[in-house]
Here is the input.
Amino acid sequence: MVSSREPVTKDIKPETTTPAVGPQPPTPVTATPELELEAAYLLDQVKANLGEQISLTRTRGGTLRVEGIVETPERKAEIVRALAPLVKNPAVVVDVSTVAEASKRSQQTASSSVTVDRVEIAKGAIPLDSELRNYFAAHGVPTDKLDEEIRQFGNRMISRARQAQMHGRVLKSLFERFTPEEVRALDAEARSQRIAMIRAHAEAFRQETAQLRQELEAVFFTAKPPERNEDSIAINDEADLQRAIELLFELGASHEDAIYGSFSISSEGAATSVAKTPQFWQSLRSAEKLSAKIAQSSSAR
Here is the structure.
C-alpha cells in the first residue's frame, strides 16, 4: 500500500566549521631612532665610544646590534650594566665580549684576532728630538733622564691629539647616524640626550686641544704667533651645526697626523716637524674657538 502523505523534506543546512587558529608569526620589532640614540647615550656615559671596539648598528631586519670587544671582564660588566635599560627590549641585541672570549670563539690568538689601540713611541730619535732635548736640559732635567722625558712628552702629545679626534669622531657620528628627517622627528628626551652629547664632546675636544697647544707653547712658542683673522662661523640651524662639526673633524684629523709625524719615528721617512710651526699653533687656536662655539650653540638649542 502506498501512503497518501507526501514525504517530508527536511531543510539541511551545510555544516560550517571554524578554521583552526594556529600560532601567528611574531610581530617584527624595529629599533626606532630614539632607541638607537638612547643606546648611544648610555654607551657615552661610560665612554665606550672613545677608542674601544664597540659598534652600534641597525640591521636590515630592523634590530639594533650593540657589539664590542673589551680587554677585561670588569670593563665588560661595566658596559653591560650601562646598557641594562635596553637588554630586555626585543629590538636590541647586546653582544659584548672580552678579548679572551673573542679569541676562544674564533680559535685564534688574541693578538691576531683583536687589535688593541695603544700609544707608544719606538726607541730612537724623533723629528723634534733636538729642540726637546735643549728645552728639558735648560730646565734642569739630568742628561741620563732626557730620553725618558722626551719619550713621555711625545707620548702625551700624541695621546692628546688622538683623544681630541676621538671626540670629533663621536660628534661626526651623531650626524651620520641619523637622517635630517629622523632628527626632526626625535622626541624631547632623545633630542635632549643628543644635545647633551654634542655639547660634552665639543667641550672635551676644546679642552684636549687647548692643553695640547699650551704644552707645545712652552717648548716651541715663547712668543705666541698672531691669531688668524678668520670669519666667524654662524651656527643658526642644524645644517650650520653639521658643517661646523665636519670642519672640526677635519681640523682634528690634520692635527693628529701632524702630531704623530712630529713625535714618532717613521720607518717610511714621512716624519715631519709641523707641530712647531706658527701655522700649526694657529690651526689649534681655530679648532679651540670652533669647538667652543659648537658647545655654546648646542647649549642654546
